[in-house]
Design brief:
6-stranded mixed sheet, ABC transporter transmembrane region fold, Rossmann fold
Length: about 575
């Protein structure tokens, strides 16, 4: 956690020069905003009194130069803030993506893409025009000081108005912070529900689930709208009072200036100038009230990003390890998701030597897929250790670890790109390595028959391919580079008889090469080439050992069940 806070602090410090420059530009901008009031003052008090046209021309030229400089500084400030947002994005983007990938492994994570949207929300706010009001607000005292120079009574009047508007801004913060925070969190959950629904649009349409899901989503959406309505109503009242107060104080300032001009305490020009200066002094405060909701949204979004980075474990940088031989060891592994009392896996202990193949079998929800995710390091065991050649797979640096491991999950996902890019894991190897992986997976002949062969675009999530084609390409991706450890979850679920034969030949070839294989399968045809079998029952090892011994135990248990069931069936048959 300390390291995460240090990285975030370092990223924010890296933009300090940008904000320092933006602050300096803001000082120049707000000083130059005095140009128009001073021009008006000089025209009223000097040009009209003296009737000097040359003086008017020189004042107009000076005013033009000052306003052009103001415009240039405004552009420079905007450019600096935009680049500060880009630098922050570059500093956080990789960390946020890694944290999102880590969080996606959680069984309770729905808002998988929310962190990236939060980062964009924060970046857009700090680079948008609304943040300029926050830079201009601290310079309001400059205008009030100038009003004091015109006359102390006008200065006191301006100061009282500024204090009242500041108090209203603070009241707006307290009135809207709580409902907006709850509404934003509820909105995140609502969007996550919609994202999940859209990813399963085919199921929804096929089984007529749209209307029930819409009703369920409407409940969450109504809650969000009600909370936003409460916050907006409160903010609207405060903004209306603020606008009334500002307009009234400007009129009052004009009236007070007129009174002082009648009493010859100030000139008529000072009367108009004081009103303009008050308007400029109060403008940032009113703008800040107008951008309050985006400001709170950006602050909440950044807090969520920070919480994600803190809550998500980040693998520490480690020295590169040599290519593992494939010795896989699980020592009393237990896994229970956060907030779940009953563990999914408990007390799993076994060891595989390099080149051995293990089949993991068991009923549905026995913990098989979770075990595979622990083995490839996408989940951290609650207790116990999973080690490859003695090193923890979870703490192994992920890029380095991935070079030695192949993984075929149960839910096959290909990525938008070509077949070759997917097989090569989007690296840039020699073409021969890609073809070798495809040949070993018996996918080469299928691939070359595609419209553009290896350069065929697979579409989003492999949508342009059939299930069997996706599975063969994903298998080629898994065995790319001849990994030391190959983990397969139902590798034959979409394969026909010829595909299963090809899979068996592929696995035998990898075994001969020294690859350690762990796979889940419900088909006995895939069990024939393994050395050992692990039977899971409710997350606990029910049997483990050589294939022949475990199969004999399973066959004996099946015969015992048939004997126990038979007497109950005979009366029904008669």
């Amino acid at each position: 956690m300390t390291a995460v806070h240090s990285d975030m602090r370092q990223a924010l410090v890296s933009t300090r020069s940008h904000y320092t420059a933006a602050g300096a530009f803001s000082l120049g901008i707000n000083i130059l905003y005095l140009t128009t009031p001073l021009y008006m003052l000089q025209v009223y008090d000097r040009v009209l009194a003296s009737g000097s046209v040359p003086t008017l021309v020189m004042l107009t030229i000076a005013c033009l130069i000052a306003l052009l400089t103001l415009g240039a500084l405004d552009v420079l400030r905007a450019r600096v803030l935009i680049r500060s947002g880009i630098r922050l994005n570059n500093a956080f983007y990789a960390r946020v993506m890694a944290a999102m990938a880590e969080r996606a492994n959680s069984t309770h994570s729905l808002e998988r893409g929310q962190a990236l949207r939060d980062l964009d929300t924060f970046r857009q706010f700090i680079t948008g025009s609304g943040v300029h009001a926050l830079f201009d607000a601290p310079w309001a005292p400059i205008y009030i000081a100038v009003i004091f120079m015109l006359h102390p009574m006008l200065g006191v009047l301006a100061l009282v108005c500024a204090v009242l508007l500041l108090a209203l801004a603070i009241a707006n913060e307290y009135a809207t912070r709580a409902p907006l925070a709850v509404a934003n969190e509820a909105a995140v959950r609502s969007y996550a529900t919609i994202d999940v629904a859209l990813r399963n649009a085919e199921v929804i349409r096929a089984m007529g689930m749209l209307q029930p899901l819409l009703r369920r989503w409407a409940v969450d959406r109504d809650r969000v709208l009600k909370l936003h309505t409460v916050a907006s109503d409160r903010s609207a009242y405060i903004v209306a009072v603020t606008r009334f107060l500002r307009l009234f104080m400007q009129s009052l300032m004009l009236g007070a200036g007129a009174y002082l001009a009648v009493e010859h305490a100030i000139t008529p020009g000072a009367m108009f100038v004081s009103t303009l200066l008050l308007s400029r002094a109060l403008q940032p405060v009113e703008q800040a009230l107008g951008i309050w909701r985006p400001l709170l949204g950006a602050r909440t979004a950044f807090a969520r990003v920070a919480r994600l980075l803190v809550d998500t474990a980040v693998t520490a940088k480690t020295l590169p390890l040599p290519r593992p031989k494939g010795e896989l060891t699980l020592d009393n592994v237990m896994f229970a998701p956060s907030g779940v009392k009953r563990p999914i896996l408990n007390g799993v202990t076994f060891k595989l030597e390099p080149g051995e193949a293990l089949a993991v079998v068991g009923a549905t929800a026995a913990g098989k897929s979770t075990l595979l995710r622990l083995i490839v390091g996408t989940l951290a065991p609650t207790t116990g250790n999973v080690r490859l050649d003695g090193a923890s797979v979870y703490l192994w640096e992920r890029t380095e670890f991935g070079r030695h491991v192949g993984y075929l999950p149960q839910d096959i996902e290909l990525f938008a790109g070509t077949v070759a890019e997917n097989i090569a894991r989007f690296s840039q190897p020699a073409p021969d390595a890609i073809v070798e992986a495809a040949v070993n997976a018996d996918a080469h002949d299928m691939i070359v028959r595609l419209p553009q062969g290896y350069e065929t675009e697979v579409g989003e999530a492999g949508s342009s391919l059939s299930g069997g084609q996706r599975q063969r390409i994903a298998l080629a991706r898994a065995i790319f580079g001849l990994p030391s450890l190959l983990v397969l979850d139902e590798p034959n679920s979409n394969l026909d008889a010829d595909g299963e034969i090809a899979l068996g030949n592929c696995l035998k070839k990898l075994k001969a090469n020294g690859t350690t294989i762990v796979m889940v399968s419900h088909r006995l045809s895939a069990v024939g080439m393994v050395d050992k079998i692990l039977l899971l029952k409710n997350g606990v090892m029910d049997a483990f050992g050589p294939r022949r011994d475990v199969l004999a135990k399973l066959q004996k248990a099946a015969r015992m069940r048939s004997i126990n069931v038979a007497p109950q069936e005979r009366p029904q048959e008669s």
